[in-house]
């Protein structure tokens, strides 16, 4: 029963969290956005005290159930491990805790977090690793499948699907995602939960609490026949059947050991004493106890849904098709409205790529700067930050991009436009333009004569930096190629107009 409950809830979380990254319409966020906010590290960084408190209580009651039910990377490891187990049955063995690796990695993670070395904790954070895999490797495949359906639907005059661009957001991050997936597959296939119990900092953090959980898996030594099936089926390698002991700091309460035991020698109980004295209990009472424990576990997991779930409004930013451009070299990177400043983004962002995957205008992409690797930056070659869209601020689970409404977004200055005379088509091609001024949503650009004393002088843009919000509309609609004649320079600290 324990294993069945775990599989059901794990499936729900894996499907929901995967759809958050795969879906490009914003629909999945309406239903599953709360799952991202329930992730441990993201809840801590966002100061989501309700989610943190719930996860602490859940771990103290049930053990490290979070790692096998809520964490998508943990569930993914179980999936890969299941295929490995199918290839070779009963292939796990007991091994002692790798303290020499586990705790130095955790210390390095904490130090990097406090020191603001984002690249280290972005690489180690489990939800971020899952997000990279989904966004960089699987979302393009999802979009390709959507485009095939859109092409078929169009032939039947149906617009149930619409085509979207499929493009490489960042080659370095793509490579990192591929390497992460390869490492997970190899470790999980061969050794189950090796990554989870030696590298993952969230697993190590929860292990400090799981040692003291009320519900634990215990041996009934009177029933145990030392057949070793429990050890051979333990993906966490934490069951020593010879000494009838379990390392609760590594046990993720998956229930595989209980289901594999043919003698009923393992039980998920409140105390060891209760387990040892239960050998003479009637079978119907034993069944009732199991039902009670299963009900308690189900209730705890369902409570997480009720406690953390949030309803979110969805705004579709839309698309505009124009030829791709070459990104300018900005002195200061652009960060999304709601991120407050480059420093705030660096301190809170885990590089999970959820905002990147959700951006409907292709404005966000992972940074390739080493100090801010995988964190979101803005660029306007493929679209601009539309005033009616604030999806990135809705989906961020870590508090790196604060929630903002549309009115507030229209008054946030994330950068200012800069005119490049040598690229401007009225000068280079001798034609009238004014695209930037016509489309500027804040009215920060006006066309003025290049030479006020010459009646035939071409009109060129003049930027009012105090009124510019840095949305990038001007840069995107500028017809100059390959570099726009006007681009947006970022601000280290955002301000309100």
Describe the structure.
The protein is mainly alpha-helical. The protein has 23 helices and 10 strands. The strands form 5 sheets. A two-stranded antiparallel ribbon has the order 1-4. Strands 2-3 form a two-stranded antiparallel sheet. Helix 4 (49-62) packs antiparallel against helix 16 (283-308) and helix 6 (72-87) crosses helix 9 (126-155). The protein starts with a helix and ends with a strand.
Layout: helices, strands, pairs:
Elements: H1 2-22, H2 27-37, H3 40-45, H4 49-62, H5 65-69, H6 72-87, H7 99-115, H8 118-124, H9 126-155, H10 171-191, H11 194-198, H12 201-210, E1 216-219, H13 229-232, E2 239-240, E3 245-246, H14 256-260, E4 266-269, H15 272-276, H16 283-308, H17 342-348, H18 354-358, E5 364-366, E6 376-378, H19 391-395, H20 406-409, E7 412-419, H21 425-428, H22 435-439, E8 445-449, E9 459-463, H23 473-477, E10 486-496
Antiparallel strand pairs: 1-4, 2-3, 5-6, 7-10, 8-9
Helix pairs in contact: 1-2, 4-16, 6-9, 6-10, 7-8, 9-10
Q: Look at the structure and give the mean pLDDT.
A: 89
What is the CA–CA distance across the termini? 58 Å
Derived from helix and strand composition plus strand pairing, the structural class reads: mainly alpha
Quick one: biggest sheet?
Answer: 2 strands, antiparallel
Total strands: the figure is 10
Tell me, briefly, the overall form: elongated
């Amino acid at each position: 029963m324990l294993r069945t409950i775990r599989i059901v809830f794990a499936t729900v979380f894996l499907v929901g969290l995967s759809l958050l990254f795969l879906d490009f319409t914003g629909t999945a966020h309406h239903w599953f956005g709360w799952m991202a906010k329930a992730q441990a590290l993201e809840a801590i960084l966002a100061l989501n005290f309700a989610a943190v408190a719930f996860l602490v209580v859940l771990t103290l009651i049930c053990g490290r159930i979070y790692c096998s039910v809520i964490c998508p990377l943990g569930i993914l490891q179980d999936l890969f491990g299941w295929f490995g187990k199918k290839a070779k049955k009963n292939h796990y063995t007991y091994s002692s805790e790798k303290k020499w690796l586990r705790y130095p990695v955790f210390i390095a993670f904490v130090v990097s977090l406090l020191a603001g070395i984002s690249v280290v904790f972005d690489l180690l954070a489990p939800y971020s690793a899952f997000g990279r895999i989904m966004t960089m490797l699987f979302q393009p495949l999802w979009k390709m499948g959507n485009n095939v359906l859109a092409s078929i639907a169009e032939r039947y005059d149906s617009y149930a699907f619409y085509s979207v661009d499929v493009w490489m957001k960042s080659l370095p991050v793509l490579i990192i995602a591929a390497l992460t997936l390869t490492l997970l597959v190899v470790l999980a296939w061969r050794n189950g939960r090796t990554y989870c119990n030696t590298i993952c900092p969230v697993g190590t953090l929860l292990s400090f609490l799981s040692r003291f959980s009320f519900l634990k898996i215990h041996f009934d030594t009177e029933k145990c026949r030392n057949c070793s099936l429990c050890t051979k089926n333990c993906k966490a390698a934490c069951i020593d059947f010879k000494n009838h002991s379990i390392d609760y700091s590594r046990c993720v309460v998956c229930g595989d050991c209980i289901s594999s035991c043919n003698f009923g020698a393992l039980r998920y109980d409140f105390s060891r004493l209760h387990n040892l004295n239960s050998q003479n209990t009637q079978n119907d009472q034993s069944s009732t106890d199991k039902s009670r424990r299963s009900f308690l576990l189900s209730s705890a997991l369902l409570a997480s849904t009720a406690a953390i779930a949030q309803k979110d409004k969805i705004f579709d930013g839309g698309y505009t098709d124009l030829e791709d451009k070459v990104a300018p070299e900005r002195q200061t990177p652009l960060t999304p409205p709601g991120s407050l400043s480059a420093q705030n983004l660096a301190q809170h962002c885990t590089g999970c790529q959820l905002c990147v995957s959700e951006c409907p205008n292709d404005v966000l992409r992972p940074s390739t700067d080493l100090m801010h690797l995988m964190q979101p930056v803005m660029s306007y070659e493929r679209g601009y930050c539309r005033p009616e869209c604030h999806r990135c601020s809705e989906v961020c689970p870590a508090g790196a991009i604060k929630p903002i409404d549309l009115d507030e977004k229209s008054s946030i200055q994330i950068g200012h436009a800069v005119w490049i005379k040598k690229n401007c088509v009225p000068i280079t091609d001798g034609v009238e333009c004014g695209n930037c001024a016509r489309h500027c949503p804040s009215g920060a650009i006006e066309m003025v004569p290049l030479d006020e004393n010459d009646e035939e002088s071409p009109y060129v843009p003049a930027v009012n930096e105090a009124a510019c919000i840095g949305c990038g509309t001007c840069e995107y609609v500028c017809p100059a190629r390959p570099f726009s004649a006007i681009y947006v320079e970022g601000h280290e600290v955002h301000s309100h107009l």
